[in-house]
Specification:
Immunoglobulin-like; alpha+beta; C8orf32 fold; 9 helices; globular; 4-stranded antiparallel β-sheet; 2 domains; 326 residues
């Protein structure tokens, strides 16, 4: 009798284990949809300055067209054609971390970072059905190898878009050239040549400080903007430059874009700090010759500069609690 009970228990355990495994590894929501799915493995092609390693093309009910392109630079760019009247989210998962992005109708590539290191990633697209409820319309899983995680923080992405903002890159280059001319004149006198200017090599910290000074001296905090933000607000760095105002999200996006355009890895961080009682955004900048990430908060320092307060370029990491980094 005891052997019989033991056999029943063992059988039940095996069936339960198979069921749990199937539930975890099988996505019934995707299988039930009417879709076509074409997977193309690419050895190496150049597109948009990214070394593409894999593409996924997906169509759902002739209403959604989605194309995913993975690159060795740690970014997935998504080309999609979506209904303009739908709220859509892109979810990127790896391990226990889930990152959510709101997207709108577009026929251009939108770039999303794969900043969670090497491992198994899941890229999912959800459509809003009612209220806060969403249904999955697309799901794709793959193991991705990120060779150097710092490279991820050099890319143009949805919330740090400097590809389509040539004025931002031009301004950044002009600021650096002006600084080099200033240094060259101090070293060689007033009569300087292009070769003399080009011989001036600014270190990463000098560039980071130069661009930081520009932002805190020229961008003011937009107190009226907070109450007018849409659910899917994305920073527009060109608008921030033109209007000379923004919120912390805009400050940190602009600073990251300027530094990334100079090949300096820069993170946009969301979280909390001891200096603010609300959700906040700031940056971490990688200084190569120091092999260190430093914390920079342009929003707070612009506020203090405007009020004649004391502040320093580099902040203590212990004063900031990181929630998400991009």
């Amino acid at each position: 009798m005891k052997k019989y009970r033991l056999a029943i228990i063992m059988l039940f355990t095996i069936v339960l284990s198979i069921g749990v495994y199937f539930y975890i590894n099988h996505d019934p929501g995707i299988k039930e949809l009417n879709y076509t799915y074409d997977l193309t493995i690419l050895e190496s092609i150049e597109k948009n300055d990214f070394n593409v390693i894999r593409e996924v093309v997906y169509n759902y009910n002739d209403e959604y067209d989605i194309k995913l392109t993975y690159s060795e630079q740690g970014v997935v760019d998504i080309l999609y054609n979506l209904p303009s009247d739908k709220k859509i989210k892109v979810i990127i998962r790896s391990g226990r971390t889930k990152l959510s992005y709101d997207i709108s109708a577009s026929n251009q590539y939108v770039y999303f970072p794969l900043q969670l290191g090497s491992g198994k990633y899941a890229i999912e697209v959800y459509e809003n059905t009612t209220g806060t409820k969403y249904k999955k319309i697309f799901g794709e899983k793959d193991f991705l190898e990120i060779v150097d995680n710092r490279i991820v923080f050099l890319n143009t992405i949805q919330i740090i878009d400097f590809n389509g903002s040539s004025e931002v890159v031009k301004l950044t280059n002009d600021l650096i050239i002006t600084k080099k001319i200033e240094i060259a004149k101090k070293e060689y006198g007033q009569d300087i040549t292009n070769e003399m200017i080009e011989s001036i090599d600014l270190e990463d910290r000098e560039i980071a400080l130069l661009l930081y000074d520009y932002i805190i001296q020229n961008i003011v905090y937009d107190h009226d903007k907070i109450g007018q933000l849409s659910y899917d607000y994305i920073p527009d760095i060109l608008d921030t430059l033109e209007t000379k105002k923004g919120i912390c999200y805009d400050y940190s996006s602009l600073y990251a874009a300027m530094l990334r355009s100079q090949n300096i890895p820069t993170k946009l961080i969301k979280g909390y700090s001891k200096i603010s009682s609300v959700y906040h955004a700031w940056n971490e900048v990688y200084i190569e010759d120091e092999n260190a990430w430093i914390v920079v908060d342009t929003t707070y320092d612009a506020y203090l500069l405007d009020r004649g307060g004391d502040f320093s370029f580099e902040k203590s990491s212990t004063d900031y609690i990181k929630d998400i980094e991009y």
